[in-house]
Design a protein that fits this description.
Jelly Rolls; 8 helices; four-stranded antiparallel beta sheet; binds fe (ii) ion; about 30% helix; single chain
């Protein structure tokens, strides 16, 4: 039997998981799967549609400065060097599909949560690895599935906010779910920070927060390696259908609908959301990204500007 990944689970976490912020310790920062060599190898293997590399302003919240790039022509080692000395953020998606060793870790960690949390049954699990330069930021946003953040190297400050107004208005989440807005379009005000739970996340620690909780991340002055996990459960899917159907009802009937967790109103919403998606009314998932820089370990910032081109993902 493999050693457990979570090292400090207590009975209280079974009651808290999914409902409040949970901050736990794990041992994956010691795993060779996340060493520099393993990450460089993963970067060498990742197909273009499974990664993002970004740069952004690092001294204030400025979503308009978020840029998309490419690491064509650079080896995994060179990308790692550019991260170390530059100002970039690398996201490797679908890691469990790329390599069964990561799938094994992903399944083990969800197995542990399902063992500890009564009734928890997760599906559509995903892992994404984040390799990022000192001081870079991920601006205020919320994610659609259940999300956790696992720290492997370095330190980052994570700001987590309540998943209700004024931090997240129902209309803002409906736009994201209906694909009318990007996650990072979630409206943010600096005073929200006074109401945030703030955690300095160190190697060997992880966070899980309630569904759709807005959050933002600021790296310490050091290279950061982390991964995110995402999952669905039946209650999360029902919540998604609620938000989705409420967005449609608001647009078509001009009413202000609320979340209905069970019963015939929920069944109606599942039907509305299902039919709407099936009929293809939701905007396409496929997005076009403007790629305007290339990773370059020799350049200041770790990247060079290039003539912009579009990439559909
Ligand atoms: Fe996120």
């Amino acid at each position: 039997m493999a050693q457990s990944i979570i090292t400090n689970w207590e009975p209280k976490h079974s009651a808290l998981y999914g409902k409040h912020i949970v901050h736990l310790q794990h041992r994956l920062h010691e795993s060779p799967l996340f060493s520099d060599d393993a990450l460089a190898d993963l970067i060498d293997r990742v197909p273009r549609q499974y990664y993002h590399v970004n740069t952004m302003n690092t001294d204030r919240h400025a979503p308009g400065t978020w840029r998309e790039g490419d690491f064509a022509g650079a080896s995994g080692r060179e990308v790692m060097d550019a991260v170390r000395n530059g100002n970039i953020w690398v996201l490797i998606q679908q890691v469990a599909e790329l390599d069964p060793a990561y799938r094994e870790v992903l399944d083990q960690l969800y197995g542990e949560f399902e063992h500890h949390v009564p009734g928890l049954e997760t599906f559509k699990r995903k892992m994404s690895i984040l390799i990022s330069s000192p001081k870079v930021q991920v601006y205020y946003h919320c994610d659609i599935p259940g999300q956790s953040l696992w720290q492997l190297r370095g330190t980052k400050r994570v700001y987590m906010y309540p998943n209700s107004a004024p931090f997240l208005h129902p209309e803002a989440m409906e736009k994201i779910v209906l694909n009318e807005a990007d996650e990072q379009d979630t409206p943010y005000e600096a005073w929200f920070d006074d109401y945030a739970e703030i955690v300095d996340l160190n190697a060997g620690e992880m966070l899980h927060w309630p569904i759709h909780s807005p959050h933002r991340v600021v790296n310490g002055d050091c290279v950061n390696v982390s991964f995110t996990t995402e999952h669905w459960t039946t209650p999360l899917r029902n919540h998604y259908a609620n938000v989705y159907a409420n967005g449609i009802l608001r647009r078509n009937l001009g009413i202000n609908p609320s979340i209905t967790p069970s019963g015939p109103a929920l069944w109606a919403k599942l039907a509305i959301a299902g039919m709407h998606r099936q009929l293809g009314f939701r905007k396409k998932n496929k997005m076009a990204f403007k790629i305007d820089f290339r990773v370059d370990p020799q350049a200041p910032g770790g990247f060079s500007d290039i003539d912009a081109f579009e990439l559909a993902k």
